Amino acid sequence: MNNFTFEEMNLMCIYNTGSRTGLMEALTEMRGYLTPEETELRNLTDSALLKLRAMTDAEFAELELYPDFDE
Question: How many CA atoms lie within 13 A of 58 on its CB side?
Answer without folding.
Answer: 0
